[in-house]
Amino acid sequence: xxxxxxxxxxxxxxxxxxxxxxxxxxxxxxxxxxxxxxxxxxxxxxxxxxxxxxxxxxxxxxxxxxxxxxxxxxxxxxxxxxxxxxxxxxxxxxxxxxxxxxxxxxxxxxxxxxxxxxxxxxxxxxxxxxxxxxxxxxxxxxxxxxxxxxxxxxxxxxxxxxxxxxxxxxxxxxxxxxxxxxxxxxxxxxxxxxxxxxxxxxxxxxxxxxxxxxxxxxxxxxxxxxxxxxxxxxxxxxxxxxxxxxxxxxxxxxxxxxxxxxxxxxxxxxxxxxxxxxxxxxxxxxxxxxxxxxxxxxxxxxxxxxxxxxxxxxxxxxxxxxxxxxxxxxxxxxxxxxxxxxxxxxxxxxxxxxxxxxxxxxxxxxxxxxxxxxxxxxxxx
Length: 381
Prior knowledge:
This protein has helices at about 35-45, 55-75, 90-100, 110-120, 220-230, 240-250, 260-275, 280-300, 325-335, 365-380, and strands at about 80-85, 105-110, 130-135, 150-155, 155-160, 165, 175-180, 195-200, 210-215, 300-305, 315-320, 350-355.
């Protein structure tokens, strides 16, 4: 990778030496890097898979392969099922609002995405007002038992702030543990038994494209879905988790999915499993995290945004810069040199870069990124 792209006359004219550049310059937090090998494999299936009916065997076999592969990758306990539908994690919030929360939920809000889910539930006319625990950006609140709730909802990895919270089960046997793993699934180790619903989209750690939600569900979650479906609660069919469950058991979706997304996700899951499963995939992310956070801690102008090391994400790093250097300028120079999508989350409003460390990103490329950062910072003076 040695091309230089001109963005505007306001971007400093800095050309990073070719020998410093990573092999692949995609470090976005989602959509993120899709492996070239996966795209080539998809192209080989252009005539017998793409453009075919999702109700036919060709696609159903792919969905079955994906569901079985995910159960293996995530180490699904006995009785857990892989369920999928269209719409991504944002769409799944609506599914959960209709089909998983019975009356009242408790939410941890420590970033953009957990906050949006809590906000959506607050507006649902058929549910009681939720309990919400918040904390300052760069931290997460404790997860503790709350009276009179039937679901606990929080993110495994907050993509906006780079804060990670290991899933755990509170002492509340009648409540479901609903974990948003959109940027964590496939890149972070966890105990599947601490979750009842572990849901995600494939355009982040699973190195695919968007438009699909996937959830690993416990028997308790499935029982909840079936009980709500049998009640008089109205649910739009496209958000009906009972319909999604029934179709998933047939290795299909209620309406036509993006076949390319299904294929690319399956390819990544097989790649992970063939090389050692979740420990191997998460190990690659951990290696990149050690490289990047180590660089930031040693830098005279940069530092990790998340101060508590145990809360520091191993898949999305947020790096602050002091006033002597502009993170936006660094981002623009890097983009002009083919290193893309490392800009900070805009709503956070910090002098910050946000850098993905998903398993498909080579740790050697993360190392190369740090050398490029050093070069650009030095050139900016």
